[in-house]
Amino acid sequence: MTTAREIMTPDTACIGEDDDMLTAARRMAELGVGSMPICGNDNRLKGMLTDRDIVVKVLADGRDPSGVTAGELAQGKPVTIGADDDAEEILRTMGSHQVRRLPVIDGHQLIGIVAVADVARALPDRPVGDLVDAISQS
């Protein structure tokens, strides 16, 4: 069975928990991504930050993006997948949490991200269609 380690995008860049939203937005633009993991000073994953978070939770609220840190927007325990978890677990986790990207953890170390596109390239059409349906429900 295919594992997260086999289909993930490795070497994922992080935004630090103390980095401000202006820095985060610039980094996302430089990398051409819409989300980044938030990594703590203790090298542990604190959450995920999306471009939508910056717009909705910072700009739309009239907050100064240079005065809001990534750590302030990290909420609860991040949804992750283990590096050796199989495709079935990836699909189940993405679907049940309605997420399009899953940080891949080996022990406590972030080693990559599995995105819906990674799943689509690695798995047959039917499970991928079911996943898209699950994460697209309101």
The total count of strands amounts to 7
Averaging pLDDT over every residue, what do you get? Answer: 88
Major sheet: arrangement of strands: 1-7-6-5
Apparent shape = globular
Report strand %: 15-25%
- Helical content (DSSP H or I, runs of 4+): 40-55%
Q: Which CATH architecture is right? A: Roll
Rg over alpha carbons: 15 Å
Question: Secondary-structure element order, as H and E?
Answer: HEEHEEHHEHEEHH
* Main sheet record: 4 strands, mixed
Distance between the termini: 30 Å
Structural class: alpha/beta
The CATH topology turns out to be CBS-domain
How many structurally independent domains? Answer: 1
Quick description:
The chain has one domain (4-136): CBS-domain (Roll).
Which short descriptors sum up this protein?
138 residues, alpha/beta, CBS-domain, 4-stranded mixed beta sheet, 3-stranded mixed beta sheet, 7 helices, 7 strands, 42% helix, 22% strand, globular
Describe the structure.
By secondary structure, the protein is of the alpha/beta class. The protein has one domain: Roll (CBS-domain). The protein is built from seven helices and seven strands, in the order H-E-E-H-E-E-H-H-E-H-E-E-H-H. It has helices spanning 4-7, 21-31, 51-59, 70-73, 87-97, 116-122, 125-136; strands at 9-10, 15-16, 35-39, 45-50, 81-82, 101-106, 109-115. The strands form two sheets. Strands 1-7-6-5 form a four-stranded mixed beta sheet. A three-stranded mixed beta sheet has the order 2-3-4. Helix 2 (21-31) links the parallel strand 2 and strand 3 (35-39). It is globular, with a radius of gyration of 15 Å. The mean pLDDT is 88.
